[in-house]
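[Automated response] Your request has been received and processed.

Submitted sequence:
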Amino acid sequence: MRVAVRPAKVIVAMSGGVDSSVTAALLARDRHDVTGITLDLWPEDERPSEVGASCCGFQAAEDARRVCHTLAIPHYVLNFREIFERILARADAESVHPLQ
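Generated structure:
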């Protein structure tokens, strides 16, 4: 049994993977106003290798863009590089390594 829900504006963090793609598709199917976003986190000179990379690289952002295009929803890539670098620098200074 599905409960009727009033359509809402929803932002979905799009990784280019199955989970975010299905989430966006289901929300769009239920007539929500869906927008996909992908965060660009890595400095230009330290991009993760595309070989074996499942997130974060150019191919993942392109996959997310393609899914959003197929679903006819807007997709934006947001540049969070500086913020991410500051978080990592602070974590390193505090000897906390969130990515390990």
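Summary generated for your ticket: The mean pLDDT is 83. DSSP finds three helices and three strands in the chain.
If you did not submit this request, please reply to this message.
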